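Usage example:
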Amino acid sequence: MRAVAFSYPRSYRITRASEFQRVFERGLHRRISVIGLLVRVRESTSGRARLGFALSKRSLKRAVDRNRVKRLTRESFRLHYSQLPAVDFVILSQAEVAGLDNTAILLQLDLLWQQAIRLYPKLSPAAVPSQAD
RNA sequence: CCAGCCGAUUGGACAACCGCUGCUUUGCAAAAAGGGGAGGAAAGUCCGGGCUCCAUAGGGCAAGACGCUAGGUAACGCCUAGGCGGCGUAAGUCGACGGAAAGUGCCACAGAAAAUAUACCGCCUAUCCGAUUUCGCGCAAGCGAUCCGUUAGGUAAGGGUGAAAUGGUGCGGUAAGAGCGCACCGCGCUUUUGGCAACAAAAGUGGCAGGGUAAACCCCGUCUGGAGCAAGACCAAAUAGGAAUGCAUUGGUGUGGCCCGCACUGCAUUCGGGUAGGUUGCUGGAGGCAGUUAGUGAUAACUGUCCUAGAUGAAUGGUUGUCCUCGACAGAACCCGGCUUAUAGAUCGGCUAUCUUU
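Running the assembly step on the lines above writes:
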């Protein structure tokens, strides 16, 4: 049961060019920003939260840094998935991320998910925040 | 022992939990289990190939790359061996290392002169006699030499300039000088010997060509058709732009920088089409490892053995704990061979020089 709760299958990702375009459509998305990352968000058509990346070579020059951001974001997304609203997230990078270490990036991601939950309270699955651990 | 040179390997380890991914097995399916999952540079995209399509890649011009010799290779701008030159005591290492007696261009400043050479100072000879500094002879006039100067000529030994000035040193020679003559060194040419060759050595011969720059144009030799896996092939919603046959041969397009050549396009008739998306190309290969043989070596041949990433918004990870020397540069995207650049440390092998000891 836990294995199901924390998995990250293909259906949790944005895979089609048209779906990326939908999120980027002018005036229809919302923006969330934390240190080093910009996120564009729009209500998902699939009824669940999905994640996509648009990391530019200009902001993150080295492939190693791009991979690191993707892996950490995916990991954090996976662990917070049960609390997230049914929206599409597209992650854009800024050059400062390369200077942050893993724990700092994970901290920023925590802030990101909290903002998303506040923005879309109706779409979030847990109306009652689960404080029990 | 210390100081170096060359080559090679490695690039935190272990455990737990939570994930991702392709393969195999089980299963109707959902899923489960098993074992696999970044690099020496995966990088820069600088060369060379394979593969694919364009015509089967053909002719000419243009353009570009390369440039000591021989070999290796699928090929190369790579590698190996050798030659020559520079650096180093040495092991070694570095070199766009063909041609400047085919032509053109450029060479600041300085200097007389920078290339058909040339005479500024100096040196020497002759001349004019002007002057009379000094000396000799003479009673003197004067004569001879000398010095300062005029004119004509000889001279590249010396000075000065420069990155570079018609080869260097010595002896002879000369009015002074000069390859003017000779010896040795350097250079050119010829022959012989060694070497496949680059080249080296020896002998003879010529008094001796003539600055630098070819990463300036250029000349000589060798090589190169273009585009790239978003190549290309297949299945196929939506929408008509397609195919075959006949006719037409001017223009347009494919074609690469251009020309030739080649293909397509136009009209009629009959059939049918290929954008989103998906599948494939996609990893078994000029493959790795071990051995034997040939070769100085790069490498090749043979035998045995192994299968060792294949993603597609794009996996190969995250957290925690323990240990240590506290972890560098950095992430596959069709695949190989190189080159270049980045890289904390650790390990191994071979070699050189100095000192000490034997």
